[in-house]
Specification:
151 residues, mainly alpha, 6 helices, 54% helix, elongated
Length: 151
């Protein structure tokens, strides 16, 4: 059976989502640097400048977040300035960089899906279940039947 080139294949060789492996340890320095680089990238790709992102975060959190604090969160040299989860959530909303959640959980063997991607994954799951059931039915049908005649 050939695959339709216009149909997404979530779990095949051309996977739309990477298969990841759980990493049992946490290298705090590497994780911190990776997260800070990812946040800096999010700022570069964002249509808002740092001051506007900080202002948007302030509105979400109902507390002041300054451009200086945002700079510290994204500077790899500032190892004493780690962002809290609540502020990270506000940063994601303010910057629109929802892909940061995927970056956050990738070394836990997880892949984040957005919106209808979960529906596509559900469809792929049930298609695989259909294939499994069809295979089992074929196995059963291939077995010879020895039916006794009833009197």
């Amino acid at each position: 059976m050939s695959r339709n080139p216009h149909q997404l294949d979530l779990f095949g060789d051309s996977s739309a989502f990477p298969v990841r492996v759980f990493v049992d340890s946490i290298d705090a320095d590497k994780f911190r640097a990776r997260l800070k680089r990812a946040m800096a990238r999010a700022i570069r790709e964002c249509p808002f400048d740092r001051a506007e992102i900080a202002a948007r975060m302030s509105r979400y959190l109902a507390t002041s977040v300054t451009k200086g604090v945002l700079d510290a969160y994204t500077a790899e040299s500032k190892t004493g300035h780690d962002i809290t989860l609540l502020r990270f959530k506000a940063f994601v909303k303010a910057s629109g960089a929802t892909w940061l959640w995927d970056e956050l959980v990738s070394d836990d063997g997880l892949t984040m899906m957005d919106g209808d991607e979960t529906l596509l994954a559900e469809i792929a799951y049930w298609q695989e279940e259909q294939r499994r059931c069809a295979s089992r039915l074929s196995e059963l049908r291939a077995k010879p039947l020895n039916l006794r005649r009833r009197k």
